[in-house]
Amino acid sequence: MSRKAFIAGNWKMNMTAESGEKLIKELAPLVKNASCDVALCVPAILIPAMTKAAQGTNIKIGAENVHWAKSGAYTGEISTDMLKEYGVEYVIIGHSERRQYFGETDESVNKRTLAALAAGLTPIVCVGELLEERENGSTEKVLDKQLTVGLNGIEDITKVVIAYEPVWAIGTGKTATDEQAQETIAYIRKKIGELFCPKCAEKVVIQYGGSMNAGNCKGLMAQPDIDGGLIGGASLKLDFATIVNYDK
Ligand code: PEP
What we know:
Bound molecules: phosphoenolpyruvate
Largest sheet: 8 strands, parallel
Helix content: 40-55%
Structural class: alpha/beta
Radius of gyration: 17 Å
Strand content: 15-25%
Order of helices and strands: EHEHEHEHHEHHEHHEHEH
Number of strands: 8
Strand order of the largest sheet: 3-2-1-8-7-6-5-4
Mean pLDDT: 97
């Protein structure tokens, strides 16, 4: 089963309209022959300017979160309509920083994911264990809950991208080894097969995220179940192009 690779950046709370536009202009010629899908998920306020900067390129602009309600009294939140107005296709949901600092739960991840799908957006649903959970052997149990609850009620799982991001590897410079990432992502695919259907699971794009960089991307991308990367720090610089061109 061949899945198209997908490399997405996550700018988090970094960049300004000026620095973001400059980076996109510099990245565009470097990634134009990419064989994978390419996206940069940016802070909501930068979406209009970054969409403009990426026009005519193969870089898609995504969001870092979305609310489940159509509209209403949800101060600080962003709706699917707001994102779609700017042509956004991808949205990160349930990033570990949202879970850790903003009380995001598997239940709220599920609501956001269902709303994104209903609006025709592609959710990039983040899952992953804490260091303590890996060390005490509960990685699979943690992933089981995140996947069972977070993906509950989805009709077509092939429309969802999963990002496996071991929390201990995010922003720490500590990457999972190729084998660790492959083994855990293969487990995620198996679990999706149980929750939905094995054939659908073969079609689901599953990214690895956690200190992926220009130096380690080739080894990670060579793993049979790793279909791409969700890139934090390295998406703020031209290294992102090297990752996108991992197969060149
Ligand atoms: C992320 O934010 O999703 C991430 C993987 O960050 P980093 O690449 O900096 O570890």
